[in-house]
Design brief:
heterodimer, A: 2 domains, 14 helices, B: mainly alpha
Chain lengths: ~300, ~90
């Protein structure tokens, strides 16, 4: 390897290791927290830290943008030095970071699980019942998840995706009823990069604002069938976010925090099914799926 | 939301997300620091515009992450103050 090639390899490695995925994880966690607090604020005059969390989210968004600019600048330098090498960018890998268990993600110890799930259990289950149409398990009866029990939102996402793939609403309801509120609400934080990647694979390119209609057509029927209680606006907002459509606030009242989390997980399962992939492909260590061209049925819509 | 216990639990659920977000930001800052060092070592002596742009963007990213972390600390304090009044 020549000195120049070695320099190129070093720069590519440095660019790939920039913490875009971690910043994306942080961003989604902050959005999820803001969503919960904003919903609580409906019943209170206290700001509860929501404006500050909004600022924090903006800073995280700017940090993510700055990291991408740095990656582009490194790519420009490599091209100028005649080291552009590979054609076509590697698909983004932030989704893997989002699905890694917490200790692995942060290199730290186990996050303290507070007993929030206990107090919020009925609140979560009530909303899950409204969204799925599947009643919560009776008092004293525990919902049996079909997979291993886990307080991990990424594991829950895989179980939900498997239920969606099977088109089994009862199973979907059981999986969602079986977890505590914290784990369920955590779906809102782990799904965005996954959805972005799956949508990109389905479309055959990075999702853009003009792809909203295509994604809606691809997903809304199945989402509606599995979640009869979800508002169309929730799915619309999720698709807008996937396609990076500028946010429209227009004084909309914050929705129930569970709606976004549950609908995003079902949408993940629907997109996976459209791609013909199973829930195992949501393992952060799964091999890179083959990216195909736009789905034939989608192209002509 | 019907009871104080449920309200507290909901705030706690939000704070748990914030806490995980803070941990991710701290990890990102550490990784960013390492990337800055390795880029500085590899690109030492270059006056290419793109190199200057990369360094500037990385510094900006770090500064934004620092400000993000500070904002979350204030947010957590406010949310905790709220639950203390319940």
């Amino acid at each position: 390897m020549s000195l120049l090639q070695e320099l190129g390899a070093q720069l590519r490695a440095a660019s790939d290791e920039l913490p875009v995925g971690q910043v994306s994880v942080a961003l989604e966690k902050l959005r999820s927290a803001t969503e919960i607090l904003a919903w609580l604020r409906e019943e209170s005059q206290d700001p509860m830290g929501v404006p500050q969390l909004g600022n924090a989210t903006e800073h995280a968004e700017r940090a993510a943008a700055a990291l991408r600019i740095a990656q582009d600048a490194i790519a420009t330098y490599l091209a100028a030095a005649g080291l552009a090498g590979e054609t076509g960018a590697q698909p983004r890998q932030e989704w893997r970071e989002a699905l890694r268990p917490e200790p692995e993600q942060h290199g730290g110890g186990e996050q303290q699980r507070q007993p929030t799930g206990e107090a919020l259990g009925p609140w979560w289950q009530q909303r899950v019942a409204e969204l799925t149409g599947e009643p919560a398990p009776a008092e004293g009866e525990t919902a049996e998840p079909t997979g291993k029990e886990s307080g991990d939102s990424a594991e829950l996402l895989r179980r939900v995706a498997a239920g969606v793939r099977a088109g089994d609403r009862s199973r979907l309801g059981r999986e969602l009823h079986a977890v505590n509120a914290s784990t369920g609400l955590g779906l809102a934080a782990v799904t965005p990069p996954v959805l972005h990647r799956l949508a990109g694979d389905l479309l055959g390119h990075e999702p853009r604002p003009e792809d909203v209609a295509r994604l809606r057509t691809a997903a809304q029927g199945r989402v509606r069938a599995l979640l009869p209680g979800t508002s169309p606006a929730v799915l619309e907002t999720l698709i807008d976010r996937i396609c990076r459509v500028p946010v429209r606030q227009e004084g909309r009242a914050p929705g129930h925090p569970a709606d976004n989390a549950v609908t995003a997980s079902v949408l993940t399962g629907v997109l996976l099914a459209r791609l013909g992939r199973d829930a195992g492909s949501l393992d952060p260590d799964a091999p890179e799926p083959v990216r195909r061209d736009a789905e034939p049925g989608e192209k002509h819509r | 939301m019907a009871s104080v216990a449920e309200l507290r639990a909901a705030v706690d659920a939000a704070l748990q997300q914030v806490s995980e977000g803070q941990a991710a930001i701290q990890a990102a800052r550490e990784k960013l620091g390492e990337a800055q060092q390795s880029l500085a070592a590899a690109l030492d002596g270059s006056s290419h515009d793109a190199v200057g742009a990369a360094h500037a963007s990385l510094s900006q990213a770090d500064q934004q992450l620092e400000e993000c972390l500070s904002a979350t600390l204030v947010a957590v304090e406010q949310a905790q103050t709220y639950t203390a009044t319940l």
